[in-house]
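Self-study notes.
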Amino acid sequence: MGTGRRVVVVTGASGGIGRASAVAFGREGDAVALLARGEAGLAGAAAEVEAAGGKALVVPVDVADAEAVDAAAERVERELGPIDVWVNVAFTSVFSRFDEIKPEEYKRVTEVSYLGFVYGTMSALKRMRPRGRGTIVQVGSALAYRGIPLQTAYCGAKHA
């Protein structure tokens, strides 16, 4: 790369905290890989990162798929260079009473909101450890420590 800017990966980059984080890295002039499923949101986030002064790489991926996350990391390093910072933000939730939530909904929330962080961390460490450098950021939630109505799946996944 040779520009001196960092290579940053942000999961859940299509909206909310993930998108805001990606744009903040863009303001620093970083190359930001935007990982998420929503292609429209990713396109918008990419435009914002570029407008802020960064370089954006859109990588559509489901963070609940370990192999897909690792393939995304490979693509990032191939196109942008070695990953310096990995930020796990991606989450999903289901607003429902516990006795009404379906098992597959609970499973999906856990796979994205917990295992997505695990898979992202594994992919980042696999690349950072041999180089002896890198930063991994896990974006948490106060709901990991305090349950609230209609959010049992999310609270449980964040607590994990």
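Second protein, same conventions, sequence then structure:
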Amino acid sequence: MSDLHGLHITIAEWILNHGKAVSAYDVSEQFGLTLNQTTAIMTILEKDRAIKTRRGKTVPSRASGRYGIRTVKVTAIDHEKMEKRKKKSAYSPPETIRHLSRRAKWARLLHNAWRDKK
């Protein structure tokens, strides 16, 4: 999935230059991806805050018409947000708890369990 994150920007620029809403079928054909990969990229495009999208119509994916594939139109790409994102560190190593005492480990576990229930 991490490979798709870099590719989604290229696809967003292609859709923006295309000028109209495209389906996962169009993107799959243009970039040689599987339909599952393309559907994942369309979801990434819609969730990315640096890319403004608008949903279009739903294209039926089967003859029955019960399931469909959405179309997406990219209206704008904020390149400044993307540059800021590149400057930030994407990786932060997990915090180790080896140095904590047994009591402190249990306290952290209980605190996190309580926090998750809220």
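Instructor comment on the second fold: Helices lie at 2-18, 24-31, 35-47, 79-87, 102-117.
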